[in-house]
Amino acid sequence: TSLAELRAGTPESGPTALVFRTGCTYRQRLEQIFVDFGWPSAARFELGTLDGMIGCVAADMGVTLLPRAVVERSAMNGSVSIHALSASHARVETLFIQRCAGHRTSALCGFAACLKQDEDVIAA
User: Fold this and answer.
1) d(CA 14, CA 30)
2) Residue ranges covered by each domain of the chain
3) Ranges of H-type helices in 1-124
4) What is the pLDDT of residues 46-105, one digit of tens each?
5) Is this structure's pTM higher than 0.85?
6) Rounded Cα–Cα distance for residues 46 and 34 (Å)
7) CATH topology of domain 3-90
8) How many angstroms separate the CA atoms of 71 and 100, rounded?
9) CB distance 22 to 47 below 8 Å
10) How far apart are CA 62 and CA 16, in angstroms?
């Protein structure tokens, strides 16, 4: 299933995007997906909390893009539906950064080594 199967406000504008403030990576990704689907002018409704976001989705006010782990409990109780994105929309490059002069513990070195070895998906 893809985001395109979600109920749209109108065929021309698409669904209302429930988003956090400008600068949120998930907001940027959802806005790009909307552009890809031909909905660049979709309405946006800004929220400040995850609970508010999920509550608005449950109330059918719009759609949002969040990590699966954040919304799985809400999906289990039937208040929201989770839709997987296509592979081209689902992949996000995530960078691990650390302070150059910071203390490198054995745990940190082990974690960094795992990241270098394994380019598979590490799910949140």
Assistant:
1) 12
2) 3-90
3) 25-36, 50-58, 68-76, 87-90, 106-117
4) 999 999 999 999 999 999 999 888 888 887 788 888 998 988 888 877 778 888 888 889
5) no
6) 16
7) D-Maltodextrin-Binding Protein; domain 2 (3.40.190)
8) 35
9) no
10) 5
